[in-house]
Amino acid sequence: xxxxxxxxxxxxxxxxxxxxxxxxxxxxxxxxxxxxxxxxxxxxxxxxxxxxxxxxxxxxxxxxxxxxxxxxxxxxxxxxxxxxxxxxxxxxxxxxxxxxxxxxxxxxxxxxxxxxxxxxxxxxxxxxxxxxxxxxxxxxxxxxxxxxxxxxxxxxx
Length: 157
Fold this sequence. Notes:
Strand content: 15-25%
Number of domains: 2
CATH superfamily of the largest domain: HIT-like
Shape: globular
Number of helices: 3
Oligomer: single chain
Order of helices and strands: EEHHEEEHEE
CATH topology of the largest domain: HIT family, subunit A
Largest sheet: 5 strands, antiparallel
CATH architecture of the largest domain: 2-Layer Sandwich
Number of strands: 7
Radius of gyration: 18 Å
């Protein structure tokens, strides 16, 4: 049986009709996608950004999940019984700094929020999502992220 190590470090069987060359080509494209998502393309990881450091496991966090596009982890200053952050791997300072080339990143962020809601069983209970943009709105870490909060009744705002 022939195995191929994929971009995320796991192995898989080659399909019957797939050659090693084809599989290696697919693996290369997968690694490019991961590298792009991690910011080695557009928005480079920044050593002075705490979220970039968390994404690279250079700063501590209690992760809920990680995938090639986003990470989710518990907020260290919760304002509700459930309070976590979903952060794209690509460094974008704020929602105001995103552009059309970030469409896939923004979509992945929304799907990451859905994944957190599903994994933490928040869908039936309800949850709030918050993206603070700029200092006046309360943004304190300038790496786009979404707060997911739940576990109590919220008023507006």
